[in-house]
Structures are given as structure tokens and as C-alpha cells.
């Protein structure tokens, strides 16, 4: 066996920026598309959760989305793609741990405190994986408000956020105060015993009510199809989420983090916008530029034909159809909509 075959994947991380990517689930494919768009080239061997990037000093680590905030927050991994909901759940877990430590009077060494950044920074919203973490109850049942579930059984994979949510409601009830649903409005009292029973479920959480395990659940909703199929309805939203790029507070190679962030940001902008090109009589230029102002300003080019100009401007993809309708109304012709493959510096 050649000597280099004896080198473990862990050893070959040396000097590489570690970038965590969801290994499965809802965020996997869109994340892989982003990596491809950012020209991060790798080959993932079957069943291996580590892949060395061929053209950059980066190693990709494929991890469950729920674990990525821990790895990045602990500074073990430099960058990661995960859901904002997962970061919030992780942070709520860290808050709970700190409260418990304070309560038990546990001594925390200065080294521990320094090593414990327990937090990652959001670099970019990635524009996919939009969903809401919602409190759900049987559609035909007696509950219509989060407060109705105080003291009941709640099934969830988001135990820490659910605990914070119900702690807040219980405290409000006890104090007769209102925080208007803002879960961050008041600090959670240390050592307080929660009356609501939060049960951890790892998946298929929607089944818990029908099976009599839970009175309500806290779970993710996108289209609402799963919730509806399970005979549930939402009564409150705990977190609104989408996929985000996060970074450690002390990345091993800050310049490489910035480069990757710029590349990924460029791909996201390219996905969000299309390029709209059209010709318009010069006298209608003012009206047309109001419809397509572009990111900074539209590009206006003189046409050979007297009294006409050509315009080129970036337009948000989701609004392009009405923009084209409006352009036709002000006299635009030859309207073309082109895909943007990549961007930078926008
Ligand atoms: N229906 C959905 N629509 C959009 N995004 C979602 C949806 N469900 C989950 N997500 C996002 O994807 C993240 C990962 O969820 P997903 O269910 O794919 O996880 P997973 O790693 O496959 O774990 P599990 O085995 O628990 O399902 C969530 O934290 C959330 O940010
Ligand atoms: O509102 P919808 O569009 O129906 O999506 C919501 C569902 O998607 C997620 O689960 P997923 O399908 O990823 O599987 P899981 O239940 O195993 O987590 C989430 O936990 C819901 O069950």
C-alpha cells in the first residue's frame, strides 16, 4: 500500500478550511447546486462524509443540518449551510445549558469560558429552505391559542425552542403580563420548572397528536400539506426560517471565508435576478427606467435607428412577468429575458 493511502481523511484536513454541508434532507440538493455555482469542485466517495475540494484549500464535511450550528459554534468547522431554525434551536440549547450551570453553581474555568464561543455568525441568507416552525394542534380540537397548551404534552424535534416558548407563556400567565408574543422580550427565569411537558421526537412529529402521544406539536411547515394531511392547524409561529450560510467567530482562514461568501453571494444574486433587455423609443425612456430601474441604474445604449435606445437591467425573477406587461404598455419592443449565470460585486 502506498504511504499516502495510509493517511486518514482527518489528517488530510491540514491547512484546509472546513465547510459543513447538510448530508441529507431538504437542504441537500440546493446546497450542492450552490457549491457547483461557486465552482467548489469535489468528488464525494460513497458513504464518506468528507470530501476534499480539488481546486481550493477546503474540505467539505457532510453533517446533519441540526448538528451544523454546534460544529460551527464550537469553532470546529469554519463555515456551514443550515437552517436558521437549527441555529435558533442550538442557541436556545446553549442558553438552557448556561442557565442550568448557573443554577447548579458550577464553576466555569476561564479556559472553558474562552473556548465556549457557542455562537456562529450569519453570513448570508441563501434564499431557499423557507419554512416556519409552528405550534400545531388538531384542527377540530378545543385548542386555539398557545396558552391553551400550557401543562399539556407537546411533541417536537425542537425541544429547546419549544421549552423557551412555553416557559415564556407560563411566565406571562403567572405574572399576568404580556410580551405580545415576542419570545425575546423577557429573560427566562433560571431554574423555573416547566409545567408543560416537552417530548423529543426525531421525525414524523405530525403523527403524535393522532396517536395520542401529544396534545400539540411544534414542527416545521412549508406548504402546509403535511400539517393538513395530519388533521392539524397552526396556532402560532415560533421561528420563521430559511437556509443560511454561517461562519465560526474565529475562522481558521478569514480570507477564504470571505472568498467563499462572495462566490456564494454571487450565485444567489444570479438566481434571484434575470436580465431584461428591450428597445424603447427615446421619448419613453423615463417611463421605462421607472419600470426597470436596475440594481444601480439601467444600461442605456444608443440604437442605430434614430429616436430609439436599447435598455438592459436586472429585474427580480419573481416579478418579471408584470414588468414585461408594463414595458409593453409604455412602448417597449423586442423584450428579452435572459438567465444570469453568476454575478459579483453587486
Ligand atoms: N418542508 C420544508 N420546507 C423547507 N425547508 C424545510 C422543510 N423541512 C425542513 N426544512 C429545512 O431543512 C432543515 C433540515 O430539515 P430536514 O427535515 O431535511 O432534516 P434532516 O437532516 O433530513 O433531518 P430529519 O432526519 O430529522 O428529517 C430544517 O431545519 C429546515 O431549515
Ligand atoms: O408543509 P410541508 O411542505 O408539508 O412540509 C413540512 C414537513 O417537512 C418536514 O419534514 P420532512 O418531510 O423533511 O421529513 P421529517 O418529517 O422526517 O422531518 C417537516 O418536519 C414537516 O413534516
TrEMBL record:
All copies of domain Histidine biosynthesis HisG C-terminal, residue ranges: 270-342
Broad enzyme group: transferase
Pathway the protein acts in: Amino-acid biosynthesis; L-histidine biosynthesis; L-histidine from 5-phospho-alpha-D-ribose 1-diphosphate: step 1/9
Keyword ATP-binding: yes
Primary site of residence: cytoplasm
Cellular localization per UniProt: Cytoplasm
Molecular-function GO terms, alphabetical: ATP binding; ATP phosphoribosyltransferase activity; magnesium ion binding
Residue stretches making up the ATP phosphoribosyltransferase catalytic domain: 65-264
Pfam families membership: HisG, HisG_C
Cross-referenced NCBIfam families: hisG (TIGR00070), HisG_C-term (TIGR03455)
Name of the protein described by the UniProt record: ATP phosphoribosyltransferase
Organism annotation: Diplogelasinospora grovesii
Amino acid at each position: 500500500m502506498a504511504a499516502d493511502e495510509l493517511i486518514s481523511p482527518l489528517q488530510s484536513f491540514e491547512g484546509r478550511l472546513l465547510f459543513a454541508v447538510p448530508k441529507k434532507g431538504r437542504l441537500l440538493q440546493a446546497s450542492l447546486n450552490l457549491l457547483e455555482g461557486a465552482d467548489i469542485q469535489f468528488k464525494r466517495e460513497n458513504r464518506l462524509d468528507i470530501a476534499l475540494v480539488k481546486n481550493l484549500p477546503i474540505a467539505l464535511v457532510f453533517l446533519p443540518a441540526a448538528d451544523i450550528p454546534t460544529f460551527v459554534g464550537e469553532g470546529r468547522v469554519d463555515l456551514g449551510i443550515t437552517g436558521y431554525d437549527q441555529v435558533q434551536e442550538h442557541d436556545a440549547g446553549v442558553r438552557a445549558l448556561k442557565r442550568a450551570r448557573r443554577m447548579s453553581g458550577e464553576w466555569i474555568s476561564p479556559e472553558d469560558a474562552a473556548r465556549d464561543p457557542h455562537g456562529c455568525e450569519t453570513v448570508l441568507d441563501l434564499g431557499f429552505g423557507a419554512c416556519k416552525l409552528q405550534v400545531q394542534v388538531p384542527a377540530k380540537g378545543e385548542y386555539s391559542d398557545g396558552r391553551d397548551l400550557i401543562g399539556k404534552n407537546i411533541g417536537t424535534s425542537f425541544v429547546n425552542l419549544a421549552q423557551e416558548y412555553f416557559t415564556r407563556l407560563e411566565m406571562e400567565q403567572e405574572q399576568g403580563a404580556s410580551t405580545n408574543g415576542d419570545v425575546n422580550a423577557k429573560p427566562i427565569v433560571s431554574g423555573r420548572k416547566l409545567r408543560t411537558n416537552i417530548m423529543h421526537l426525531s421525525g414524523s412529529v405530525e403523527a403524535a397528536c393522532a396517536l395520542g402521544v401529544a396534545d400539540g406539536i411544534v414542527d416545521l411547515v412549508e406548504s402546509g400539506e403535511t400539517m393538513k394531511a395530519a388533521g392539524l392547524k397552526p396556532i402560532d409561529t415560533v421561528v420563521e426560517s430559511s437556509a443560511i450560510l454561517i461562519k465560526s467567530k474565529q475562522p481558521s482562514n478569514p480570507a477564504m471565508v470571505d472568498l467563499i461568501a462572495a462566490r456564494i453571494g454571487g450565485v444567489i444574486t444570479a438566481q434571484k435576478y434575470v436580465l431584461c433587455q428591450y428597445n424603447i423609443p427615446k421619448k419613453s425612456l423615463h417611463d421605462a427606467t421607472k419600470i426597470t430601474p436596475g440594481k444601480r441604474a439601467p444600461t442605456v445604449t444608443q440604437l442605430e435607428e434614430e429616436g430609439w435606445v436599447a435598455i438592459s437591467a436586472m429585474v427580480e425573477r419573481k416579478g418579471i412577468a408584470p414588468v414585461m406587461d408594463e414595458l409593453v404598455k409604455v412602448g417597449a419592443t423586442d423584450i428579452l429575458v435572459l438567465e444570469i449565470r453568476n454575478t459579483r460585486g453587486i
